[in-house]
Amino acid sequence: MGQKGFWDLERRQQKLNQKKDVLVTLNAMIPWESFRALLESIRQKPRRSNAGRKPFDVILLFKLMILQMPIAICSIPLTILLKLLKA
Q1: Please, where are the H alpha helices in 1-87?
Q2: Tens-binned pLDDT, residue by residue, of the chain (87 aa)
Q3: Which pTM was predicted?
Q4: 67 partner at 20 to 30 Å CA-CA among 11, 25, 28, 33?
């Protein structure tokens, strides 16, 4: 597949906007950041050390949960989706 270029993300976003993608529609309708304080208070766990991977953003996990509900996707495609969203 090769290394992503400098403008690849911008071109991908333009294509999603043109197709009226579900993610673009949801981002326009839902104020995700308004949920951050509540989600972070629920998820608070003290870290034992700074070693290892940093935790995923609570908003990203919330979006994945919202997407998973109506689509009813299994955990394998969810991991692929998570990798795509982090890229």
Answers
A1: 8-19, 22-29, 36-43, 58-71, 75-86
A2: 567 776 777 887 787 777 777 777 788 888 999 999 999 888 877 778 888 888 889 998 888 888 777 655 555 566 666 776 665
A3: 0.56
A4: 11
Judge contact between 26 and 16, C-beta under 8 A. Answer: no
Q: 76: domain range? A: 8-43+53-86
Question: Phi/psi at 19 (nearest 5 deg)?
Answer: -85, -5
Concatenated DSSP letters of 54-79: PPPPHHHHHHHHHHHHHH---HHHHH
Listed in sequence order, the residues at least 6 apart from 43 whose beta carbon sits closer than 8 Å to its beta carbon are 55, 58
2 domain residue, yes or no:
no
Structure tokens at 45: 């766990």
